[in-house]
Each structure stands twice: as structure tokens, then as C-alpha cells.
Amino acid sequence: MRVILNSFFGFLLVLAASARAAAPAHLVLVIEENHSYSQIIGSAECPYINALAAHGALLTRSFAVGHPSEPNYLALLSGSTWGVTDDTCPPPGSPYPGDNLGSLLRAAGLSFDGYSEGLPKPGSQDCSDGVQSGYRRKHNSWVDFSTLPGDTNRPFSDFPTDYGALPTLCVVVPDMEHDMHDGSPAEADQWLRGNLDGYVRWCTGHASVLWITWDEDNGAEGNRIPTLVYGAGVRAGRIRTRTDHYGVLSTLCSLYGLKAPGLAARAKPIAGIFK
Predict the structure, then answer these.
(1) Which of 15, 32, 140, 144 has the fewest CB within 10 Å, making it most exposed?
(2) 28 with 211: CB under 8 angstroms?
(3) What is the pLDDT of residues 143-161, one digit of tens each?
(4) Are the CB atoms for 33 and 139 separated by under 8 Å?
(5) pLDDT in tens, 216-272
(6) What angle do CA 65, 148, 88 make, to 5 degrees?
(7) Can you name the CATH fold of 25-266?
């Protein structure tokens, strides 16, 4: 009996190790702005995004958790909106002491950074860069947590060209011109191609993944947003399971063996994305 039990527990350890080894070596999460699913998927303005969707996993029933922007960014990172209902800078009650995706990764011995286009300087807590369609803190949720050090808050100009030097997971937020907030979907599509296509071409051969989602819709589709995943181990096709930012956070935590924080702990990881 002891031999059987030892064999059984050994088998479980092998399964656990296999699941852990399947986690992406690097995952880049890009957050776009204020467009509904039907505005992007199938749109001639976004050929690059649609090519990624066609060769990756496209979530057809993905939803934001509210309006406006700031609560959604907080929810996606930490599993809570923290009672925030507007885009106040800084948001009420911050810096927040709670767990979030970045702090959980770091506690597990992994790494996290957030890259914001136009961030005035590393670690900046400024509300904006003073440019009309530039950086806005409301789109930078990791700066709102005391559990993340300032050196995780980085300008996009620091994004490595040696992709192997990327953290385990990073969030990329383009500025207001390039995230579809002020600029057009076509401009955002071109920005993604110009700035991340190198990573896209690299990731499939290096056990890494690109994940793109939107903070909220344009108010026309019940907050239904595009969400797509491309890269190594991703199963191409459409996933029709209903999910939201909490489900996305739950999935990201599950990939790295982390206990999901806040309301993400109640959300099921999204099945069918990975082979």
C-alpha cells in the first residue's frame, strides 16, 4: 500500500510540475481603450489585430466590469474596483495595500513590470505627462498599490529589445493617442505592429504569449470588448465562454500557480485558450 501511495503522490507531483512548466516564460498584456467587440473584430481599420485574432484564441464573450476606465484597470490587476467610480487622480484611498497580480508574481519569485507610453519618468506618480493625448495615470493601476515598488512602474521606452530580458509578466499601456482613446483604431493597430511585432514574431518560438484586451466598450454593446491571446501553446479558435476582467485575472493567476485576489478568486479560469 505504501508503494502504491508513494507512486500516486509522485504522479501528482509530476502533474503539478508539468502544469507549472507550461506557464509562459513571458506574457505581455496590452490594454486598449473604449471600443466594443464589433468595432474591432472584422474591422478593416485593424488588420494587424485581426490577423493575431485569426491565428490565436479570440474570446467572443469577454466583458468589462463597469465604466469609466479607472475601475476596470484596477479590477483587471487586483480583482477589485476599490469603490472607484470615476477617473480621479489619484484614485480615492490609494495607495492600496492589497494583493494584485504584480505583487503575487513577485512574492512567488517571478517578476512583473508595467510599461506606460509617455510616463514622465520611472516610478512617476504624476497624473499626466502634460501632453494632450499622452500618458494618463488613470490607465496605470500598478502605481496605485503600496505592495508594488516604484521600479515596477516604467516608461514604454524601457521595454526591452532583448525580449528574453522581459519580466515574467508585464502590462503595456499605450498613450491616449495610441490606445484608441483619442486616436483611431487604425492608429492603434499601426502602433501595435510598429512596437510589438518583433515580440510577436519572437514569442511563438520562446514559450511566450501576447494577450490583448480593452478596458471597456463604447457604451453600445453592454460592455462587450475584444480579448485575444496569441503565442506559444495557444489554441487558435473562438472561445465562447462568458468572462470578464475578473475571469482574465483568474486565468493569468492560474497560469502561474497564484491564488487569485479579490473577486477574481470566484471567477473560473478561462478554459480552451492553451493546448
Answers:
(1) 15
(2) yes
(3) 999 999 999 999 999 999 9
(4) yes
(5) 999 999 999 999 999 999 999 999 999 999 999 999 999 999 999 999 999 999 999
(6) 45
(7) Alkaline Phosphatase, subunit A (3.40.720)
